Amino acid sequence: MPVTLAFDIGLAHTGVAISYENKIAEGLTTIHTQNLDLLQQEIIDLVKSYQPDILVFGIPQKGPLTQHVGLLKNKLEATLSLPIILVNEDLSTRFATRAMIDANKGPRYRRLNNHQVAAASILQFYLDNLIE
């Protein structure tokens, strides 16, 4: 059964989502750290726990996160023997917020889950565009 982990990488919070069998993405957790080395270790720990076949990173088209995501990708590729796919993440947070509002989730829920829901939207976009 293929397992995919996806990440909505931020400067302070990183949302994580998972998919089993490459069908449906679901939010998993949020990593709270501003330290790139700690984020790298958290991702390595998740890889050990869930043993994914592939990692998907959301990356914006421009801005400071573009370089941040690229640096993290390079560091992890030197450590892990997994493919890391970059997917355009522009509007993923806005989409996640809209989806939670449409689902009648309150402000507290949205604040606590926004990053992992954004990661799930990135992952679902990737899954929906897989060529089988």
UniProtKB/TrEMBL annotation:
Subcellular location(s) per record: Cytoplasm
Name the UniProt record assigns to this protein: Putative pre-16S rRNA nuclease
Entry superkingdom: Bacteria
Domain YqgF/RNase H-like residues, every copy: 2-96
Keywords in alphabetical order: Cytoplasm, Hydrolase, Nuclease, Ribosome biogenesis
One Gene Ontology biological process: rRNA 5'-end processing
Alphabetical list of InterPro entries matching this protein: RNaseH-like_sf (IPR012337), YqgF (IPR005227), YqgF/RNaseH-like_dom (IPR006641), YqgF/RNaseH-like_dom_sf (IPR037027)
First-listed, main subcellular location of the protein, grouped into a coarse class: cytoplasm
GO CC entries: cytosol
UniProt-listed Enzyme Commission number(s): 3.1.-.-
Claim: Nuclease is one of the keywords in the record: yes
Name of the top EC class for this enzyme: hydrolase
Family of this protein: Belongs to the YqgF HJR family.
Function statement: Could be a nuclease involved in processing of the 5'-end of pre-16S rRNA.
CDD domains hit by this protein: YqgF
UniProt KW Isomerase keyword: no
Any GO MF annotation of the entry: nuclease activity
